[in-house]
């Protein structure tokens, strides 16, 4: 009897491990190619071990005897973790997109560096925004549901909360439509965040370009058009430094907004799944 209880506990723990693994393999920073799979697997084992006593009462009833159903349950747990991880990735994509707005208007979009997380080349200012986002994600505390901790700790709070609100994945039209709606909302947050961060600098640089064009026509002997790129870069860097105290709170707020989206998605999860 005791052996059977341990066996049932192990199969239930595997459900927690599957969701945790899905999250760690898609969330920002840990999903980077430079992070070894072994590190992610060991971290998933540790987090699943810590979470299991807390969430085991919310887990669906499982039995290894029904092997096909158990495999589907493992896949559904991993899918929920992947969903949470990708929603967080969208926030970082918004910062990179804002950096691309800067780079295009400043005329430095041709200067690209490799993003270690996505393993693709992005404009240098997109990399700068991504690095700032990583620092904010790891070090800056913000309040959510009465807890004042860094953003990465809120990830694991969301993971624990997800077991309570979404113990399993329901494969019906209502659930799938709801998931697509929240993903669409997350992409809307991404573009709005990118615009809020990118528009001030982009607008100022656009005015600078128009002023250079007018001045070049009014005084052709100054040859201002040939100096346009250098002037745009200088003005862009100065404006970026001036606006940084405004941009960083916007970036921090975007994390909070995305956690709100994740919380709304979990709260709206079909109650029939429990």
The chain-level structural class is: mainly alpha
Strand content: 5-15%
* Helical proportion, percent range: over 70%
Radius of gyration: 23 Å
**Average pLDDT for all residues:** 77
* Main beta sheet strand tally, sense and closure: 2 strands, antiparallel
> Which H/E pattern describes the elements?
HHHEEHEEHHH
Strand order of the largest sheet: 1-2
Low-confidence stretches: 1-5
End-to-end Cα distance, whole Å, is: 27 Å
Strand tally is 4
Number of domains: 1
Give keywords.
mainly alpha, 274 residues, disordered N terminus, 4 strands, 6% strand, 7 helices
Commentary on this structure:
By secondary structure, this protein is mainly alpha-helical. It has one domain (2-273). It has helices at residues 2-24, 37-55, 67-106, 124-139, 151-165, 173-218, 228-267, and strands at 112-115, 120-123, 141-144, 147-150. It has a two-stranded antiparallel sheet.
